[in-house]
Specification:
By secondary structure, this protein is mainly β. It is about 15% helix and about 35% strand.
Length: about 200
Amino acid sequence: MGRYSEILNNPPLFMKLTGKDIPSPTVIIPTEKVNKSTESASLKKETIIIKSEGQNYTLEALSDWKLSTEGDNIDNVSTVSDGKSSLIIHTNTATEGVPCGFKDAPLTPSEMFPDVSGYTYDSYTEFLGVENKLFRRVNITANPSAGKSFFALCQKNNNEWFQPTAYGFITYEVPYSENPETTSAEALKILDEMVVSLQNAN
């Protein structure tokens, strides 16, 4: 549980964030062009199988991104990484989910979530998966001492945004930066494309 324990200390996506953790409004539409080495690598993709309790999924990843797993069927963590950035799918079936709020989809305080400020995001990147699941990527926290910035994915379901997704809690790790949407734009694009390719393998 080493990698997931690290996220637990940052904090994890399913724990309440404080108001100061909410990113300030930014435009996070990557505009940097993919360099030639990435263009060449993008021609070499492999199918990776993500296993969880009673359900397997596949995704397409560049050949230099490798899969590692830890845990068991109840608390399984699958990590796809190139050594610098990582896609992490955590299929903890015993963990409660949390809502995601946005300006166009505000949250209403409830008994379970009386203070929704920690679950409300001012900026996001939205994209559609091959199984017609709509995602929004949000910047949740950072750990400068560890040199990492963290993102999480919310999925739309019945006009509401929620974590986890249909595939589990999904987070990204990229090199730390005060503005990771810009400095890690290329890596985030690759990570988003892997999530876009996620589909049922059964």
